[in-house]
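Reminder to self: tokens first, then the designed residues, so the page reads top to bottom the way the pipeline ran.
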């Protein structure tokens, strides 16, 4: 029996995990849902607040709520000011290939406040009627270095909430309490 290969995030060299100040990876594998169902929730930013409570002040791109490469959108998360994000990758899942969504953003200011971020998603079918959903984020800057050593890791917990909420939304389940509410 051959071992199936799982897809991986395509990282710009600047954000390669292990070379940045902070990196977080979250993944979930779920049975009896489809990549199409996940993609419909993930790629439509007008739906994010319905299943991810750690975001608000969403401004859709001029092209509408479905993200496309080159789009610019805005949102606030983790109590940060509104972030202006550039969609770096937006590939719908299809037969034999994973869905990919990634954006970059940066906050200016002095050295203590400056941060650059690359956030990526991957959704793919697995054998046995399963779907893999992964999100990873790589960050550069002093605020990122501080986040990397914080306990509990709020970014890890927040991104897990995003994954869990996404799957619950697809299944039609109530979102309920989040990991961040207990921190």
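Designed residues (183 positions):
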């Amino acid at each position: 029996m051959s071992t199936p290969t799982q897809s991986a995030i395509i990282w710009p060299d600047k954000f390669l995990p292990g070379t940045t100040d902070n990196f977080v990876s979250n993944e979930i594998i779920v049975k009896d849902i489809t990549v199409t169902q996940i993609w419909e929730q993930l790629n439509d930013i007008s739906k994010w607040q319905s299943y991810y409570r750690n975001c608000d002040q969403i401004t859709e791109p001029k092209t509408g709520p479905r993200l496309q490469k080159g789009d610019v959108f805005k949102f606030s998360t983790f109590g940060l000011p509104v972030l202006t994000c550039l969609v770096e990758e937006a590939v719908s899942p299809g037969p034999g290939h994973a869905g990919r969504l990634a954006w970059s953003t940066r906050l200016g200011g002095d050295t203590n406040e400056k941060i650059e971020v690359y956030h990526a998603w991957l959704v793919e079918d697995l054998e046995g009627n399963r779907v893999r959903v992964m999100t990873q984020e790589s960050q550069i800057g002093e605020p990122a270095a501080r986040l990397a050593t914080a306990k509990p890791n709020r970014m890890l917990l927040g991104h897990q909430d995003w994954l869990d909420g996404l799957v619950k939304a697809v299944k039609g389940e109530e979102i309920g309490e989040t990991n961040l509410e207990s921190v």
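The chain has a mean pLDDT of 91.
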